[in-house]
Each structure stands twice: as structure tokens, then as C-alpha cells.
Amino acid sequence: MNLPNKITIARVLMIPLFVIAVLVPFPFGTWPVGNADLPVHHFIGAVIFAIAAGSDWLDGYIARKYNLVTSFGKFLDPLADKLLVTAALLVLIDISMLASWMAIIILSREFAVTGIRLVAAGEGNVIAASGLGKWKTTFQMVAIVVLLLHHFPFSYAGFPAGDVLMWIAVILTIISGVDYFWKNRAVIMKTM
């Protein structure tokens, strides 16, 4: 097993650590952040999530740079991303930091795109991620971290940065989903 695939597997293994860090109310106390208190375990969860999200960029960079792209990696990498984002969105709903409808939009797009990619792959067609899709992912990841940090450092000014970033992520999710289906309509119609 090559290094990028090991990094991807490590990302999957970080997911339960992230969930435990955020949802188990460890008695670590809180830090004042603006008008609220940031539970230390939420901070730990944000760090774990940020490392896991960053590992997505790292494994892809290493795989491309050293020509270590494998079929296993092509399958596992996007799956790991979907599992990480799904876990984070569900955790944010559980701690009342995210509206469930936002998660439904994001997850519906992810499952629909993944399903179409799998069908297209079965037909021998590879559908690559678009620039819009990469921006969508970036905003999702950053929004999740800022929400876990209770809008820090913007919380001192009373600015709900995490909410604004998540709105942008949802809008980009919708736009990139429409763009994805439009650009790949021929492939989609061929598989029907």
C-alpha cells in the first residue's frame, strides 16, 4: 500500500476520533470567545477535523507528484471525504450549530454526484471534479472548522463567520451540482 492510500486510511480512522472529541463532553472546561464559551473538546474536534481535511490535499498532492495514483485511491479518497463531511455535518446538527436543511442539501448533492460517478465508471467513463466542486469543498471544510470554533476569531466582533461561510458552501453546493449535471448530461443520459 502506497503513502497516499495510507494517508487516506488515516483520514477515515480520524473520523471516530473527531466525533468522540466533539460529542463527548470531556471535563476540559471552556474558553471565552466573544459573547460565548468555546468548549475545549470542540476545539480539539476542530483541530482533528482540520488535520483530516488537510490530509485530503496532501494525499492527492503526493499521488500526483510521484505518480502513485491507484484505483483503490480513486475509490477510497472521495469516499473518505464524503464520510468526513457527513460526520461533521451530523455532529454540527447534534450540537445545534447547523440547520438540518443545510446538511440535507449538501449530502443530497454529494450522494447524487457519487452515484452518477459510479454509474459512469461502470460504463468506462471517468468524471473529474470541477473547479466549482473544489471551491465548494473548501468552503464546506472551512465553514465546519469555524462553526466548531464557535465563529472564532470573528466571535469577538459578534460576526457569525461560520454561518456566513456555510451559506456560501450551500450556495456553491447547489451551483456546482447544477453545473456538474449540466456538463455531464451526455454521460448521464447514456447510462439511463
Describe the secondary-structure layout.
Layout: H1 3-23, E1 30-33, E2 36-39, H2 40-65, H3 71-94, H4 100-122, H5 131-148, H6 161-183, H7 185-191
Structure, described:
The chain is mostly helical. It has one domain (3-191): Up-down Bundle (Four Helix Bundle (Hemerythrin (Met), subunit A)). 74% of the residues lie in helices and 4% in strands. It is built from 7 helices and 2 strands, in the order H-E-E-H-H-H-H-H-H. It has a two-stranded antiparallel ribbon with strand order 1-2. Helix 1 (3-23) packs parallel to helix 3 and helix 3 (71-94) packs antiparallel against helix 4 (100-122). The protein starts with a helix and ends with a helix. Pathway: Phospholipid metabolism; phosphatidylglycerol biosynthesis; phosphatidylglycerol from CDP-diacylglycerol: step 1/2; Lipid metabolism.
Give the C-level CATH assignment. Answer: Mainly Alpha
| Broad shape | globular
CATH architectural group: Up-down Bundle
Q: Largest sheet at a glance?
A: 2 strands, antiparallel
Average pLDDT works out at 90
Q: In CATH, what is the homologous superfamily? A: CDP-alcohol phosphotransferase transmembrane (TM) domain
Distance between the ends: 36 Å
Strand content: under 5%
Total domain modules: 1
- Summing up helix and strand content along with how strands pair, one would put the structural category as mainly alpha
Poorly predicted parts: none
Encode the helix/strand succession as letters: HEEHHHHHH
Question: Taking Cα atoms only, what radius of gyration do you get, to the nearest Å?
Answer: 18 Å
Q: So how many helices?
A: 7
Relative helix content? over 70%
Total beta-strand segments? 2
Tell me the CATH topology: Four Helix Bundle (Hemerythrin (Met), subunit A)
How are the strands of the biggest sheet laid out side by side?
Answer: 1-2
